[in-house]
Amino acid sequence: MKKIVETVKISPATLAVICCALIAGWLIFLTPIHGYSDNGDFQRFMATNDLYSLHQVQAGYVVQQYGLMRYYNPLHLEHLTVQSVAIQLAVSLNRLFYSHDRFDIRFLGTVHYILYLGGVAVLVKGLVGEKRRLRNYLIAASATLFIADSSFTLYFNSFYPQAMTFILLLYLVGFGLLISRYKAVNKWLTVGFYLSAAALLLVHESTSLLIIGILLMSVGILRFPNRQWIHGTAAVVTSVLLFTCWLSANNITPEVQAMNKYQALTQGRLFATDQPEQIAKTNDIDEQFSLMKGQSYYPTAYTALAPQADYTKQNLSQHYNLPWLIREYTEHPRQFNLLLNRAAKNMLILRPKLTGTQEKQGDNKPFQKTTYFSLFSYVAGAYYPKTYGFNCLLAVAIMIIYASGVLRGLRKANQQLRSHFWLVLGLLSVVVLVPPVTIVLYGMANLVTHLLPVAICLTLTGLILLSDVLQHRLWRHSDEA
């Protein structure tokens, strides 16, 4: 078997890129195209990027063609994000090669696809290097099962920001792994790491929650020995990342701020108790608002009090704030734990709810979901333990493994393993810290958007651990250049 593997001319990273290109390309480019349909979130992305719906489409179907505005748009790039940059690049390509009046969603899929393949190459090369060994091909195959899963690649043909979140996390971790392979700091890889980090924070307001994990990952880079130039930039890099985090968290409209605040109560604190009227009393809130338990900011059914009404804002929203919510959860840990476990059940549900994945063609039914190349998402969603406590215990167990490996390798100055320690610590901090912060800030609303980075970070941790085990780094302490 070893001799057969040595005759293979394609490196593990190149083979993984080819496999991912074929698997994802068939899904997003060939007709009938696949993607995710609109669940109500597309409008704000379309309005600020000069796009509009050509005609009324039944919910649950993917739409391939959109209209392109040709005149002044007062909302043009009103709130600039990395997702908006990707959409604008797709619009430019569409105007250059296709039409000035109509937008084909596959141009956005192309932008995501090209960036994605680069991320695959960086990540797999960081995991296995260039050597053609059997274990390296096994690691590359395991990575492909995760990276090419249709639950992720279907986002490419949609306006959801999760596509860029997924892609940039591949780059971020990939650059971190590549940097650790060198005896000295590689400046270009370091620049790539921090550009990926800054871009990731600017994808969506919720990705700003990844800041603690990113800062912990960067410790492994900033601690490279005898590299004064990189040590001198630590404060600058940290300040820039923190500013980027603040900018991302505040780059939202007043309407979105009101929605987040409202749902943090109705789908958070009120949602966790059987007696919501008692909570209302604690902060001089009229008990009638306890009827809004579990309600969305944009309710689909009749509601006696509209969340957007001035009466609701004056008598509900202005009577509580973030410190009050934190105090409430602190005083009622059992109810907070209930929400954490409920969020854990949704952590590995990778596809947005109320969406379909196919065009309206032939006998396709609305909200129909493809099962093409979805082994990873099926197994993870069906068999992974669905409690927050298990995630915490798993994180502690993995960090004990890495801490013991680092301690055993201190005498041999194993820089690669030390860098992996900080990289894994950063990823696991996202797994442990993001769910409780998400509940406080957003309640149980739109968990797929907020918790998708958690699922990705958890899986990337598993891939790094698998690579370190099969490469014998945790006990033999041999760096690979």
TrEMBL record:
Signal peptide: none
Ranges annotated as spanning the membrane: 12-33, 110-128, 134-156, 163-182, 194-217, 229-249, 388-410, 422-445, 451-470
Keywords recorded for this protein, A-Z: Membrane, Transmembrane, Transmembrane helix
Keyword Membrane attributed: yes
Protein's UniProt keywords contain S-adenosyl-L-methionine: no
Name of the protein this chain belongs to: Glycosyltransferase RgtA/B/C/D-like domain-containing protein
